[in-house]
Amino acid sequence: MRRTALLFAALMMPAGMALAQGAPPSPAATPAPANPVVARVDGLEIRMDDVQDEARRLPEELRNMPPQMLFPLLLDQMITQKAITQAARAANLPQDPEVAARLRRVEEETLQQALITRAVAPLLTEEALRARYQRDIAARPSEEEVRARHILTPTEAEARTAMAEARRAGADFAEVARRRSTGPGSREGGDLGFFKRGDMIPEFAEAAFAMQPGQISTAPVRTQFGWHVIKVEERRAVPPPPFEEAREGLRQTAFEEGVNAEVERIRAAARIERFGMDGSPAPAPSLLDRAAPPAAPQPRR
User: Fold this and answer.
1) Which pTM does this prediction carry?
2) Cα angle, residue 274 at apex, residues 273 and 275 outer, rounded to 5°
3) Which of 79, 80, 51, 78 is nearest to 67 (CA)?
4) pLDDT at 33
5) Which residues of the chain have pLDDT under 50?
6) Whole-number Å distance between alpha carbons of 167 and 220
7) What local confidence, expressed as pLDDT, does residue 21 receive?
8) Rounded CA separation 59/63 (Å)
9) Tens digit of pLDDT for each residue in 117-135?
10) Burial of 120 (0-12, 13-18, 19+ CB in 10 A)
11) Three-state SS at 242
12) Who's near 81: CB < 8 A, 6+ residues apart?
């Protein structure tokens, strides 16, 4: 058992590391098999790579256990699983209709995932992601951001009163916001931090991005939230993020686009027949199915 556990530890290490940590093998020693049998259950073999595959599926905190501790626990679990599976086969459970249906569902899901994964994999390589980064992110111009404060009031009259106070010489906009603003962030003097144009609703963004640092809006801005008095503190141009920061987002986008494209391709190539809830043939789709109904006639005056 100790020799097998040590072999497991060696195989889990990067190439060359295991040999570097131990004494060089004796020239007369018989080399260990590359993938030895580590157990048999009713004649079914469990090999070393089976244990390694199972270990890779464990949570990270378990994978970090010392191999001498992890190997016997994992092997014992796999032996139990094999024994139960063999007992189920001996009881002819694969022929049970409910079990057979569940096995078919698992098989179908496995095949679906394998096909989609194979189709999408080329889109997720380092080279493909870097090409997407150059096309979608690196080539775009720097995006402008604004840092602004605002005073939010429920009425235009209150907004104009706050605006007149904030525009007085020597007035502290943040202090006015703390006293008069009803919106979130009033305790911070109405500070909204930096935001891009698309981060705000159009009316607010249009007013804020038309102003320069230090300027206060000359008229209240109305939005669905109320009436705003805006002060722009800073403007800056933000360059595209580096590839390392954008990698995960690019990967997610490429994955979703690849899956959608492959599903559409497969559905387009499939011969699909639809039936009603009673099994009767469904009517063929019509070009008018998505047409808007005619407008109601206007009453004559």
Assistant:
1) 0.59
2) 125
3) 51
4) 75
5) 1-27, 301
6) 12
7) 34
8) 6
9) 999 999 999 999 999 999 9
10) middle
11) coil
12) none
